[in-house]
Specification:
alpha/beta; 204 residues; 24% strand; Rossmann fold; 30% helix; globular; three-stranded parallel β-sheet
Amino acid sequence: MTAGPTREFFDTVRFISNPSTGKMGFAFAEAARDQGHEVELVAGPVELLPPAGVSFTPVVTAEQMFDACCRIFVDCQAAVMTAAVCDYKPSQTFQHKLQKKALAKEITLEPTRDICAHLGAQKEQRIVIGFAMEDHDHRAHAEAKLVAKNCDAIVLNGPENVGTTDAVVEIVTADGRWSNQLRGTKQCISLHLIELIERLHNER
């Protein structure tokens, strides 16, 4: 289970990130625990306490999350990728704080490694559920990610769900079928996802 944002630093104190709070991932971790599953939670910087009874690995950068997920996935039956991993990172990280000057400064960005796609390529009989945060061409982008990342399902999420208790999502599965729109607390949506994962696992 991944949750929260990552931070990609261009000097010792400044970074690129996003507003993810980790609430969806933490809600899922708690719901899966309550359903009797063993849960490994890998989370970026969030203001949430690790759930009791859940194995917790804190990370900061996308590379740290990549390494943790690769290590943990070996012994997992399913991966649920709710984290809002930064797609880009500065190509150079300065080892000191850059002093402000009255001049423009260019920062070159390079792509981070795609954790979900990497796990999807390695999954064999395991389940991989991805999340797609989209603000336009929602279904088309989610369907493209489903194929590109070799996921068993993609949860289509939106910016309006960030930081909220409730959420509205849709789910597309590998057969191309879309669920009805799911509305409710993130805990309730998590229970629906757990049922989906259990069904997919039993069908393997």
